[in-house]
Automatic annotation (TrEMBL):
InterPro entries, sorted: HAD-like_sf, HAD_sf
Protein name, per record: Haloacid dehalogenase
SUPFAM superfamilies: HAD-like
Classification lineage: Bacteria, Bacillati, Actinomycetota, Actinomycetes, Kitasatosporales
The organism's place on the tree of life at top rank: Bacteria
Gene Ontology CC terms, in alphabetical order: cytosol
GO molecular function: magnesium ion binding; phosphatase activity
Length: 286
């Protein structure tokens, strides 16, 4: 190595960044991450996915730092699944989100936590994107998965980490406007095209501080690493909040243009393991 690219704390997005386009981590990337960890490089991930999914997708990677899951709703110890901090919706706000989605005829998926147990609850799955969302979780045996009869009952007296819905791409902008007007400052609304089901946009409603910028700062302080230089890696719009607070930003060539424009470094694409090759300077991991 001839530069300082490995210095400091490193936080990686998963889909489109570390993961290839088929949502898998290559053997090269797995071995590369472990080589970095073995060399003493502090690193972890910040993902819209859950800790259950992160544990499955990164099987064999020896992470020890907490992970940021659900875009920052939880800071979680990966080995135990214990939530160290949470930024979740109160019942009244979650109910308002359900009301707004009902007006849009958009079927909600709920991620809830009662202080002990995490649950992901879905309805009848009335579109291809919802079918994919539920089928993926069934495929890796997500123990949180279940069905609801009445979504309103499920957000009463509990913490709601996220309310998710899928809408056709052409309806996404209008749907976000309706949700933002209904919820105001009580919740954040994020929308992103679903990379695995073309034509559908995933809308996530969550606590205003359930975003990666707030979460990466909190993680650094919780881990006692706030004094280190922070480098973040991402490809999509939900990564921009952590780009805004990082000392160094890196994106793969496949990143959204708004992300690439804000990156200090653009590497080869995710399907070429560009991020890990950049960190290893093209070298094969030991």
């Amino acid at each position: 190595m001839t530069d300082d690219r490995r210095l400091g704390l490193h936080i990686f997005d998963l889909d489109g960044t570390l993961l290839r386009s088929d949502a898998t981590l290559s053997g090269y990337a797995r071995d590369g991450l472990n080589a970095l960890l073995d060399a003493g490089t502090p690193l972890t991930v910040a993902s819209a996915r859950s800790a259950v999914a992160i544990r499955t997708l990164l099987a064999g990677v020896r992470l020890t730092l907490p992970v940021i899951e659900l875009n920052g709703a939880f800071l979680t110890d990966l080995a135990s699944g214990r939530h160290l901090t949470h930024r979740t919706l109160d019942p009244a706000t979650a109910t308002s989100a359900l009301d707004a989605l009902a007006r849009l005829a958009a079927e909600p998926v709920l991620t809830t936590w009662d202080g002990t147990t995490d649950r992901v609850l879905h309805g009848p799955c009335g579109n291809p994107a919802l079918d994919w969302y539920v089928a993926e979780k069934r495929a890796y045996g997500d123990p949180r998965l279940g069905a609801y009869e009445d979504p309103y009952a499920e957000v009463t007296g509990t913490h709601t980490a996220a309310v998710i819905a899928f809408v056709p791409d052409e309806h996404a902008k209008a749907a976000v406007t309706v949700l933002e007007e209904a919820l105001g400052d009580a919740a954040g609304v994020q929308a992103a095209a679903n990379r695995y089901v073309p034509g559908w946009t995933e809308i996530q409603i969550a606590h205003p501080q359930a975003e990666k910028g707030f979460a990466v700062r909190q993680l650094a302080q919780t881990a006692g690493l706030g004094h280190l230089r922070l480098t973040v890696y991402g490809d999509h719009l939900n990564d921009l909040p952590m780009f805004a607070v990082a000392d160094r930003t890196v994106a793969p060539a496949n990143a959204h243009p708004d992300v690439s424009d804000r990156a200090d470094v653009v590497t080869a694409a995710n399907d070429e393991d560009g991020i890990i090759r950049y960190l290893l300077d093209g070298a094969q991991p030991c």
